[in-house]
Structure formats: structure tokens, C-alpha cells
Amino acid sequence: MTPPRGDGAGPSISVVAADAERWDDLQAVFGPRGEPVRCQCQYFKCDNAAWRGTGPQERREALRADPAGLLAYLDGEPVGWCALDRRTAYPRLRTSRVVWSGRAEDRGDDEVWCVTCFVTRVGHRRRGVSHALARAAVEHARARGASAVEGYPIVVGPGERVATGDLYVGTSGVFTAAGFTEVSRPTPRRAVMRVELR
């Protein structure tokens, strides 16, 4: 999907769609412990009742059945993931105050895609992995007929430090660099950012 960089300007990052053959690579990105292993990027795919009724193993099997997202490789090693799917594939987003505050858009629009989560493998952070994933997400969705792509990042001010655990939704800077523009600011710390594709 995204060719590796070989221009000497930085690390060679390539991005591809996740699939069953890349399952071990995806789990390597999540690592052996921590929130990615517990969640398996299923939080937004579940409503509250479904989330409470499942554990890590059930979530892992749900992701294995539908690994909707992208994997980043740094010089051939799996180092990053972003969850990417149609907005309608994420039941939790239908009722999210962050997503809908001040917006009257059709919540059932199947042509709007969204990026809900990023994971960068321990030891590979601050190397442009999230930036590469956000750029690739736009092209991946465009190739599948999306009318727009959204993200719901945290807003980080200049010089501000944020706990790593809060960065799973991405930062506004990552989305801006990938061509997204802010369409609403439902809270001082969260933005809705979007790329119109047609």
C-alpha cells in the first residue's frame, strides 16, 4: 500500500492492510502485556454491554475474524497498527459525545471511515510510525470508495507532555500532517478531524 521510504530522509516505513496472514505481526505490535493486549482494538467495536461481557480472549478472536486496520513495518519489522473501518462498524461511536457534539451528520452514513486507535510497538516510538499510518489510512479508505475519513485525536499543545496511555486515539498533529482538518472541538482536549475524499 505505502512503499517504503528509501530517500535517506528517515526510517524505511511501509504500511499494508492487516489480514489473517499478518496475525502474528499484529500481535507482536500489541506486545505481551498492557492495554493493547487486553483491548485487542475492540472497545469501539462494542457497546457497553458487549464490552463488559467479553474478556481479552474473546476480543482477540473478534479481531482475528476481522482485522480491520493497517500495519506499519520499519525496515521489515512490524512496529505499528491503526484501526480503520467504516464508521458504522463501530457501535460505540454512534452514541459518542466526542464524535457528535455540535454535528447533525447522518450517523448511518456507510461511506465515512474512521481511524479509532493507534498502537506503536514498544521501542519504536517517536520514529514517524503514527504519521505513516495516518497518511496510509486516507489512501486505504479512498481506494475503497470512502467519501471521508475521520479521526478523534487528543489535542496536544506545544511542549505539552501527555501520558502514553492517552495517545491511543492519536494526536491532532499526526492527523494534521496527514491532511486532516479540524471540524469540531467537542472538548478542550479532543477534536474531530476529517479529510473529505469527494
TrEMBL record:
Record-annotated N-acetyltransferase domain positions: 13-198
SUPFAM superfamilies: Acyl-CoA N-acyltransferases (Nat)
UniProt-listed CDD domains: NAT_SF
GO function terms (MF aspect): acyltransferase activity, transferring groups other than amino-acyl groups
Domain of life where this protein originates: Bacteria
Record's protein name: N-acetyltransferase domain-containing protein
Source taxonomy: Bacteria, Bacillati, Actinomycetota, Actinomycetes, Micromonosporales
